[in-house]
Amino acid sequence: xxxxxxxxxxxxxxxxxxxxxxxxxxxxxxxxxxxxxxxxxxxxxxxxxxxxxxxxxxxxxxxxxxxxxxxxxxxxxxxxxxxxxxxxxxxxxxxxxxxxxxxxxxxxxxxxxxxxxxxxxxxxxxxxxxxxxxxxxxxxxxxxxxxxxxxxxxxxxxxxxxxxxxxxxxxxxxxxxxxxxxxxxxxxxxxx
Length: 192
Hints:
Elements: H1 2-11, H2 20-27, E1 30-43, E2 50-59, E3 62-69, E4 73-78, E5 81-85, E6 91-96, H3 101-114, H4 118-122, E7 125-130, E8 133-138, E9 147-154, E10 160-167, E11 170-183
Antiparallel strand pairs: 1-2, 1-11, 2-3, 3-4, 4-5, 5-6, 7-8, 8-9, 9-10, 10-11
């Protein structure tokens, strides 16, 4: 108990106060986001943690998740479609997600997560705000019940620093580096 209190006390100055309003102000209206991502997977199917390097390109219309190492591959979400391009360069179309509610929910969630779209995330998750992070747990009956928890961690400027996705069998950590974003211009104030 004492260790937990000390950890909170020592971490408090560096951890920003994360609120829904603060995140909406920081992330609302994103038109484009790029980042280098280090992805680490571990769990019962991995003999040891598996690390990959990824280039992320996001717009509200399209998400490109390009694995650069250890094996080149590309996953693209556009509309309700998902396709993969493997190391051989061949495109594998996984078809529209409309026929599979779980796949449609996952694609919707990925978009909401990358945009830090709280309303979109809250469709399937209950959010809990804490110092430097937001923890999302699935709502009962959600098509995303495969996740036990999703943790979003933020830097002092409320920029996304990392995401942790936990399922029953696996934990995936995504560390965001060199994040660049382009926001929509704010709407002009109404004339007096």
